[in-house]
Write a structure and sequence with these properties.
It is built from eight helices and no strands. It is about 65% helix and about 0% strand. This is Kinetochore protein fta4.
Length: about 240
């Protein structure tokens, strides 16, 4: 930063430089025809592109003159300078307050108050023992604040993960209602299938006991397709 110029002058110069960049005329690249989209009316001519860019540049310059006028730049730069000096003044007052001593109402759990503590004990007549004690307490306070910040970041991370895992707290209702559970729908269907298979197996065993079994070991129930269909349609 140039120390010979004020905050207002620096910010005004910066804003004006940005406005000049925005006000520069748009120019098409030399090989723009290679990227032009073909239309039913034929290729775009250089004259059409020139006319369009002329209108766009004129509209942009007019817009910049209205929006980024000298009065607007002056107003913005003045506000920035005022905010800057207000922050500097507040910081200086805070440092002066801490130099006189830490107030009883000062919240030392806040990081911005901890960093403002002087590095050395600035008290007239302070002994070396008191200065060492102050230095030890200040380092301990800074260490505790760093640990608190780490735990806070960890807490925020776990809180975010818990929010992501929220749908899994009740998976039977939110993810898959037919999970394999004692009273789930899938278990009920498997129980029906087990009873059906037992009934079919019992009926087939009864038929084997009464019907003739061929010598080749192959066994076919008379009308087995119809009987099996009747069994499957039987309500359990």
């Amino acid at each position: 930063m140039d120390s010979t110029r004020s905050i207002y002058e620096l910010k005004s110069a910066f804003i004006r430089a940005q406005v000049r960049i925005l006000s520069e005329s748009l120019e098409p690249p030399e090989d723009w025809q290679r990227y032009a989209v073909e239309t039913d009316e034929g290729e775009l001519s250089a004259k059409v592109i020139e006319d369009v860019l002329h209108k766009v540049n004129s509209a942009a310059k007019q817009h910049n003159r209205v929006v980024y006028s000298s009065q607007a730049i002056h107003h913005i730069a003045s506000q920035i300078a005022s905010l800057y000096w207000a922050a500097i003044s507040q910081e200086a007052q805070s440092q002066a307050t801490f130099a006189k001593g830490v107030g009883q109402l000062t919240d030392l759990s806040k990081q911005w108050n901890i960093v403002k503590l002087p590095l050395e004990l600035e008290a007239p007549g302070a002994t070396d023992e008191q200065d060492a004690r102050y230095h030890e307490l200040r380092e301990r306070l800074a260490s505790l604040d760093e640990q608190r910040q780490k735990r806070q970041r960890r807490h925020d991370q776990l809180k975010h993960l818990r929010r992501l895992l929220g749908p899994f707290e009740d998976p039977r209702a939110d993810i898959q209602p037919n999970l394999v559970t004692r009273d789930g729908e899938l278990v009920q269907e498997l129980e029906k299938m087990r009873m059906l298979m037992a009934r079919v197996g019992g009926r087939i065993a009864q038929q084997k006991g009464h019907d003739h079994v061929p010598a080749n070991g192959e066994y076919l129930l008379p009308g087995s397709d119809r009987k099996l269909e009747a069994l499957l349609e039987t309500e359990i």
